[in-house]
Specification:
Helices cover 44% and strands 16% of the residues. The chain is an alpha/beta fold and 303 residues long. It has three domains: 105 residues, Rossmann fold; 99 residues, Rossmann fold, CATH 3.40.50; 80 residues, NadA-like (Rossmann fold, 3-Layer(aba) Sandwich). The strands form three sheets. The protein has a four-stranded parallel sheet, with helices on both faces. Bound molecules: (~{Z})-2-methylbut-2-enedioic acid and iron/sulfur cluster. The site of (~{Z})-2-methylbut-2-enedioic acid (CIZ) has 13 residues, from helix 3 and helix 11.
Length: 303
């Protein structure tokens, strides 16, 4: 089937099933095209709470669909590809976190939104890459266990030196593998470009960047900057919006390796099948929802 045919079928089915489709900034271009809203995980979860439709097709990875379910427990949340997980989120388990908490009983726990619902349920407050610095600053405890991303944690630790950040050793398989030497080469090649990177990159890369921010912050920065050329240091999916919104600007990807294999699992056919067969439903226990929603709500209160 051609893309336009399947897109039409998805649109029909969406109406029939009373559904909305949301897509993360890292999704394939055609998925972003078919979505009602494209954004970061938190913006999408908040949007899901506000819509009247009963069914949410979440084109992203597992923890994102879980966050939407935690914030909208009465809705049916579907993840089109059951194996679309986030290896970084899987690097911390609830058991591992409980052990760490026993080792540092006075520490507060901040979990990056890239974590399972169970890990969120054992954390004090959740954060995203847009608000991690403010979340950490808002906490009264000096000691803070930060899970699971060591790179985002190090970035926050540098900006909030008054806190003692205890890092977990997780990392994003896509951002973490980017090498400093390769970044220096592309910077040299495009001397007139600004380098915008995600804090999931290694600290030595964030250090030489002109701007460090989440997907949304990078997208906003590029849109409002007077500069015309940018090297983008996050997953290549953001290029779709960057290029569409800024036809007069030029974007280079920092590395051809900036592709998240899990984000790319969702195809138009997956979305069609998800709606047609109402799969795969995100199911969470009431206890996990109630505990995990506290860490998300606490973040929501700060912003
Ligand atoms: O929170 C998100 O959506 C993630 C994982 C990244 C970002 O910067 O938007
Ligand atoms: Fe996880 Fe990295 Fe993919 Fe984001 S880009 S979903 S952190 S593996």
């Amino acid at each position: 089937m051609e893309n336009f045919e399947i897109i039409n079928k998805i649109k029909e089915l969406k109406k029939k099933k009373n559904a909305v489709i949301v897509a993360h900034n890292y999704q394939r271009d055609e998925i972003q095209e078919v979505a009602d809203l494209v954004g970061d995980s938190f913006a999408l979860s908040k949007y899901c709470c506000s819509v009247k439709e009963e069914v949410i097709v979440f084109c992203g990875v597992h923890f994102m669909a879980e966050s939407a379910k935690i914030l909208s427990p009465d809705k049916t949340v579907l993840l089109p590809e059951i194996d679309a997980g986030c290896p970084m989120a899987d690097m911390v388990t609830a058991e591992g976190l409980i052990e760490m908490k026993e080792k540092y009983p006075n520490a507060a726990v901040v979990c990056y939104i890239n974590s399972s619902a169970e890990v969120k349920s054992h954390s004090d407050v959740c954060c995203t890459s847009s608000n991690a610095v403010e979340v950490v600053k808002s906490i009264k405890e000096k000691d803070i266990i930060f899970v699971p991303d060591q790179n985002l944690g190090s970035y926050v630790a540098k900006l909030v030196p008054e806190k003692n950040i205890i890092l977990w050793d997780g990392y994003c398989i896509t951002h973490h593998k980017i090498d400093l030497e390769d970044v220096k080469k592309i910077k040299e090649l495009h001397k007139d470009s600004l380098l915008l990177v995600h804090p999931e990159c290694k600290p030595e890369i964030s250090e030489i960047a002109d701007y460090v921010g989440s997907t949304k912050q990078i997208i906003d920065f590029a849109a409002t900057s007077n500069h015309k050329k940018f090297i983008i240091g996050t997953e290549m999916g953001v290029l779709y919006k960057l290029k569409n919104d800024n036809p007069d600007k030029v974007f280079y990807l920092m590395s051809q390796g900036l592709v998240c294999p899990n984000m790319k699992k969702t195809k138009l056919q997956s979305v069609y099948d998800a709606l047609n067969e109402m799969k795969y439903k995100i199911e969470l226990s009431e206890e996990v929802i109630s505990k995990a929603s506290k860490s998300l709500d606490r973040m929501l209160k700060i912003f």
